[in-house]
Amino acid sequence: MRVAIVGPAYPYKGGGAQHTTELAHRLAALGHDAVIESWRAQYPSFLYPGQQTISAPEGRPFPGIRRDLDWRRPDGWVRCGRRLRRADLVVLTLLSPVQVPAYLGVLYGLRRGTPVVALCHNVLPHERKPYDAPLVKALLRRVDRVLAHSEEQAGLARDLASAPVRVAALPPHLPTTAEARPGGGVRHRLLFFGMVRPYKGLDLLLRALARVPGVSLTVAGEFWGGLDETRALIAELGLGERVELRPGYVPADDLPALFGDADALVLPYRSATASQNAWLGHEHGLPVIATRVGALADHVTDGVDGLLVEPGSAEALTEAITRFYAEGEPERLRQGVKAVDPDPYWATYAEALLSAEA
Fold first, then answer.
1. Do 19 and 166 share a structural domain?
2. What pTM does this model have?
3. What is the pLDDT of residues 247-256, one digit of tens each?
């Protein structure tokens, strides 16, 4: 089967690009003729204030990539659709409603001649704008199938789509790094990693940290709305000596040292769909303290390889951090951490993506 995936790939960074690339590799390994139609310019910079591309790949680049799509060139969207008429299946990777106009152009070029799956990393954004739902609805009512990464997301999709909606858990697609396992005793340092946005709950973690003396925090990642608000909260809480800010995208080669300096990764999200970060923490030997939202709770076994707390509560995070640092607990939880085996996840995911059955 010839499968065309329309989505970001290197030099774009982050989980979306890593997922697109790994999906193409997995389909090729199953004997399919996989190609990627990627972007030359995916978003206007004012809609995505972070760093969009990187200079070195964070895994195996996929050889069959075309990088012609440009958000400023509708004619290129239609040409892409015409090229993909030769495919047996087209996969439109939806990361943001901003992509929808281009995908509608691709569908116009296809002219309904090829089955199309909308692969939804997020059906709707965590922080929504008035135009998000109408745009996504316009897309999901024009495709043949929809693949969502959780039952919650599938429910959103069914409200917007007329096509069948299937669910498959997001499989591991972690960047390739040197192995690093924490050691050398308890550091009394936690890690918050990834892009900082309101729904990820860094403010709640900072308020919790202020109530637990003797514990420090590293915050590493891009700040979506700038640093001013976070710096002001750190100052208000008197945490200036205990919080290290490392703003900016963290290359894969820097992850082992970053994770190796912490006792646990903390994911204090207010909401979530699917995230690789719990797996990423476990891959680097760290227990994970996470909220019970989205798929996070599926990736952490409470009391075995991390701790789970209710979302939206600084008090719950305070209790979890205190419980984590009980005598002998960091070492015990670290011993329970196991790296994830991605193969079973990808086998199930590929079957769900390729199956024409609802």
1. yes
2. 0.86
3. 988 888 899 9
